[in-house]
Amino acid sequence: MSVSGKKILIAVSGGIAAYKIHFLIRDFVKKDAEVQVIMTPDAEQFVTKLSLSTLSKNPVYSDFYGDNGTWNSHVEMALWADVMIIAPCTANTLAKMTHGMCDNLVIATYMSAKCPVFIAPAMDLDMYAHPSTRQNIEVAEDYGHFIIPAETGELASGLIGQGRMAEPETIVKAVENFFTSQTSAKSLEGKTVLITAGPTYEAIDPVRFIGNHSSGKMGFSLAEEASKRGAKVILISGPSSQTTDDKNIELHKVTSAREMLNKVFEFYDRVDIGIASAAVADYAPKEVAKEKIKKNDDSLTIELVKNPDILKTMGEKKTHQFLVGFALETQNEEENAKGKLEKKNLDMIVLNSLRDEGAGFKNDTNKIKIFTRTEKKEFNLKSKDEVAADILDFVEAQLLG
Ligand code: PMT
C-alpha cells in the first residue's frame, strides 16, 4: 500500500537528527503524501521553519499562537492526520509524552491525536540506555505506539553506540508497512482482475516480427499488487522476460494481438476489473511469409492491416466490468488520453508520457496521471510497484463510490 494521499503529521523535537527530517519530508512528498510539520520551540535551534515548510509545502507551526492573533489548532491538526510521526523524538519529548506534560504544541497535538503514532527516538547512547528512557519507551509501546528503534553508529557527541535516529527510508518503510497491514485485510478479496501486459509480436516471417519496447514490468507489478490485495488475477502477457511464482496469478503467455484478444475473451465475462497495460501493436503484416524473406531487392514493402483493438472491444462488451486503460503518449498527452477514455468506453485511464524521464517502457519507474470522467490526479515518478499500488488504490476508491 502506498502512502499516496495519506496525511502525515511530522512532529520535530530538538535534537541534531532534526536535519534528517528534510529528507523524510521529501520522501513522503515524492510519494504523493500530504505532509504537515510541527516542531517544539527547541527544534527551531536545529532547523528552520522556512526549509521545512518549503519541502512540505505547508506552513510549519511551533506555537499555539500565530503572528496575527491566530490560533494554531492542535486538535484540528491531530484529527487531520492519518499518522503522526515524532522524529527525532528526544528523551525530553518522550518523557513528556508518557507523562502527559502538555507544555508545547507538539505534546498538545500528540495528546489530541487519535491516529497511529510512530516514534523515532534520537539521543546520545547513555541517554538511550538510561532506565528512564527504556521505561518511557515501554510505556509508549503499551499505549500502542510504534517505536522505530534508534540505530547504532557514530553520534553527535563523537561516541559510538545506539542512539542515532533511524534513517528516513526506514521511517517511511515503517509507515508504508503499517498502511499495507491495514489493507492486507484483502481489499480485493472475491474480485477477479484481468490484466494485459507486455508487448505483442506480429510475425513477418518465421524469424522476424513487428514489436515494441514494452518489458511487461508495469503489468506484472499490477498483477502482483492485485494478488496481494486478495484478488484472483488473470494475467495475459505478450512475450516478455517477466515471471511470477505468485499462486494467485494465472499467467497466460500469448504472442500476437489476435491471440491476446482471444485469451482475454475466454475470461472476460467473469472479470470484475480489467486493466489493459499491454502495448498492443496496432498493425500486423497482412501475410506472414512461410519462409524467411531473402534480401534480394533494395527495398521491401510489407502491407500492414489493422489489428483488433482489444480494449475497445472490452469497452463495447462491457456489462459489469470496471475498465482501466493506459495511454502511452508523446504529444497532446491529456487530450489524447481523455479521447481514449471516451472512445473505448473506459471507467478510468492511466496516462504515461514518453516525454517524462523515467516513465513508460522498460524503466523500473513510471510517472502517471489518472483520469476518470470527473477527476484528474497527478502522481510523482515512482517505482512501478508503487505506481501499481496507486492505480489500485484509485480503482478501489472509485468502486467504493
Ligand atoms: O511494459 P513496460 O516496459 O513496463 O511499459 C509499460 C507501458 C509503457 C507499456 C504501459 O505503462 C503502457 O502505457 N501501456 C499501454 C501502451 C499503449 O499501447 O498505449 P496506447 O495509447 O497505444 O493504447 C491505449 C490503450 O488501448 C492501452 O490500454 C492498450 O493496452 C490498449 N490497446 C491498444 C491497441 C490495441 N490494438 N489494443 C489495445 O487493447
From TrEMBL:
Q: Which Gene3D superfamilies match?
A: CoaB-like, Flavin prenyltransferase-like
For this protein, what does the record note about how its cofactor is bound? Answer: Binds 1 FMN per subunit.
Q: In which pathway does it act?
A: Cofactor biosynthesis; coenzyme A biosynthesis; CoA from (R)-pantothenate: step 2/5; Cofactor biosynthesis; coenzyme A biosynthesis; CoA from (R)-pantothenate: step 3/5
Q: Which InterPro entries match?
A: CoaB-like_sf, CoaBC, DNA/pantothenate-metab_flavo_C, Flavin_trans-like, Flavoprotein
> Which residues are listed for CTP binding in this entry?
282, 292, 308-311, 326, 340, 344
Region feature (Phosphopantothenoylcysteine decarboxylase): 1-192
- Domain named DNA/pantothenate metabolism flavoprotein C-terminal: residues: 188-396
What is its cofactor? FMN; Mg(2+)
Domain Flavoprotein positions: 6-177
Q: Name one GO molecular function term.
A: phosphopantothenoylcysteine decarboxylase activity
Question: What is catalyzed by this enzyme?
Answer: N-[(R)-4-phosphopantothenoyl]-L-cysteine + H(+) = (R)-4'-phosphopantetheine + CO2; (R)-4'-phosphopantothenate + L-cysteine + CTP = N-[(R)-4-phosphopantothenoyl]-L-cysteine + CMP + diphosphate + H(+)
Enzyme Commission numbers on file: 4.1.1.36, 6.3.2.5
Which superkingdom is the protein from? Bacteria
Query: Which UniProt keywords are present, listed alphabetically?
Result: Decarboxylase, Flavoprotein, FMN, Ligase, Lyase, Magnesium, Metal-binding, Multifunctional enzyme
Q: Where are the annotated segments for Phosphopantothenate--cysteine ligase?
A: 193-401
Tell me which HAMAP family the record gives.
CoaBC
Give the protein's biological function: Catalyzes two steps in the biosynthesis of coenzyme A. In the first step cysteine is conjugated to 4'-phosphopantothenate to form 4-phosphopantothenoylcysteine, in the latter compound is decarboxylated to form 4'-phosphopantotheine.
Please state which protein family the record places this protein in.
In the C-terminal section; belongs to the PPC synthetase family.
This chain belongs to the protein called Coenzyme A biosynthesis bifunctional protein CoaBC
Record the organism.
Answer: Chryseobacterium endalhagicum
